[in-house]
Write a structure and sequence with these properties.
- This protein is α+β, with helices and mostly antiparallel strands and about 475 residues long.
- The protein has 3 domains: about 260 residues, Beta-Lactamase (2-Layer Sandwich); about 60 residues, no CATH class; about 120 residues, no CATH class.
- Helices cover about 30% and strands about 25% of the residues.
- It is built from 13 helices and 19 strands.
- The strands form 5 sheets. Strands 5-4-8-7-6 form a 5-stranded antiparallel beta sheet, with helices on both faces. Strands 10-9-13-12-11 form a 5-stranded antiparallel beta sheet.
- A hairpin with a 4-residue loop joins strand 9 and strand 10.
- Helix 11 crosses helix 12.
- It is globular, with a radius of gyration of 24 Å.
- The protein starts with a strand and ends in a 5-residue tail after the last helix.
Length: about 475
């Protein structure tokens, strides 16, 4: 037993197993020292989860906030913002809402498509001490909040069944209110929700800790890793453990990806040696395995539904694509005509979790999913056709014009995939491009994870 600053601590181990293949993997054992429940009551994990509300006060805080009264203490900002979103959605605070469960065939199809299925053993091993010793359950969802896998103590699973927390069910925030899974999907960061911080009364006997899982190849949100259990038995320090295990899972996906790129490179190198002109071999996600006749390339933005033939790629111009096992041979056509440049951009920010930019022209059309930051940047540029300087964008996004260097770095990354669409000095959409901005029906639902001043202001703008 270890004592530190008057706090009784107990160890939980997180094991990293050495992997196979050329990719390097961490191995060894990390020890997370978990405070006893009485020593840590607020479930802190960075500022987003920080709060000092005593758990005994949570019911009265919720009742006052939902009844437009004055709470004895304010809710944590994360929780208060979620409650506000959920009220706008019309979720019943006593019973919640639901959507039809997925059929068994649909669950199996989603499991097959998800890269997370191959991580279950790693996730279960990392959380074993919590799931087994603490009598909790582990759940893994997809990016829509649908539960695809669930494991844990039988008694806890039976209690979860009574809440509808079963495989195939949706735990999206807009359906069942504030909860670890749904709120983590909206916030795109680790979240802990304690007892009466849940919007729906029937969930108050539970607490949960959840962390998003991203695809390291493109940053795409894959789903959420969640641990839930009875509120009286829930250790607030579970959140750091869940977050660490999620990061280990993402690291495993990254290692597997680079192993596949290495295999493709072994096939591509001799092939490109016989190709004249500029050409490269990329995997199915656009990551370059080998190039010839040009400088190093990291990733090429491919059309959403890529097919063999001629296609305009934003970073390369007009190209011809030929299929390869697990990838594509991309040959750059040197005599591309100016009229093949893109002429139309559709920025779609209607969804609560996914946002896309679609570029089209004579040579075809392609779409790309956007990160929250890139969605914010393109939204501002669409709202300001005349353009914005780096300092103005920094003020729009961070409320601090001095963070222009951060903006320039993000714009540089984005222009690598949207060359021909974006211009600079000032940053703007190109003059020959028609831009359409698709907004949510209700502006308070605009880019829910964003805390950018310009987005916060527009959410309250009656004119939209």
């Amino acid at each position: 037993m270890l004592r530190r600053l008057g706090t009784t601590l107990r160890p939980l181990s997180l094991t990293f197993r050495p992997g196979r293949g050329p990719a390097q993997r961490l191995h060894g054992v990390a020890i997370l020292w978990m405070p006893r429940r009485a020593d840590l009551r607020d479930g802190t994990m960075g500022s987003v989860n920080r709060g000092t509300t005593d758990e005994a006060l949570l019911p009265s805080v919720r009742e006052a906030c939902l009844g437009d009264g004055r709470p004895p203490v304010p809710p944590r900002p994360l929780i208060g913002q979620s409650w506000h979103r959920v009220r706008l959605r019309g979720v019943d605070p006593d019973k919640g809402g639901s959507s039809p469960w997925l059929a068994a065939e649909e669950v199996e199809e989603r499991r097959h498509r998800s890269p997370l299925g191959g991580l279950l053993a790693h996730l279960r091993e990392g959380l074993g001490s919590v799931v087994d010793v603490e009598r909790h359950l582990m759940a893994v969802t997809d990016a829509e909040g649908r539960v695809l896998w669930r494991q844990g103590n039988r008694g806890v699973l039976r209690g979860a069944d009574r809440l509808g927390f079963d495989v195939g069910a949706s735990w999206a925030e807009e359906l069942v209110g504030t909860n670890g899974i749904g709120t983590s999907l909206v916030e795109r960061r680790p979240v802990q929700v304690r007892s009466a911080e849940h919007f729906v009364r029937t969930h108050h006997a539970w607490s949960c800790a959840a962390a998003p899982l991203h695809d390291p190849r493109d940053g795409r949100l894959l789903g959420v890793l969640n641990v839930s259990g009875p509120a009286p038995a829930f250790n607030p320090a579970t959140l750091p453990l869940v977050t660490a295990v999620a990061k280990v899972g993402e690291g495993e996906l990254r290692a597997r990806h680079w192993e596949s790129v290495e295999r493709l490179r072994a096939v591509a190198a001799p092939m490109l040696a016989r190709v004249s002109g500029r050409a490269l071999v990329v995997d199915r996600d656009g990551w370059a395995a080998a190039v010839t006749g040009m400088g190093p390339v990291g990733r090429v933005a491919l059309p959403k539904s890529v097919q063999a033939g001629r296609v305009w790629l934003p970073s390369l111009g007009l190209c011809s694509l030929a299929p390869l096992p697990d990838g594509w041979l991309v040959r750059v056509e040197e005599a591309a005509r100016a009229e093949l440049a893109p002429s139309r951009v559709v920025l779609d920010v209607r969804g609560p979790r996914r946002w896309t930019v679609t570029v089209s022209g004579v040579a075809g059309e392609w779409s790309q999913e956007l990160s929250p930051r890139h969605a914010e940047l393109l939204y501002v540029l669409a709202r300001h056709p005349g353009g914005r300087s780096a300092a103005e964008l920094a003020a729009d996004l961070f409320g601090d014009a001095s963070r222009a260097v951060t903006v320039r770095a993000e714009m540089s990354r984005m222009r690598r995939t949207l060359a021909g669409v974006l211009s600079h000095r000032p940053y703007r959409f190109a003059e020959n491009v028609d831009v359409q901005l698709l907004l949510p029906t209700h502006l308070p639902n605009l880019l829910p994870p964003s805390r950018a001043p310009v987005v916060l202001a527009d959410r309250g703008s009656p004119s939209g």
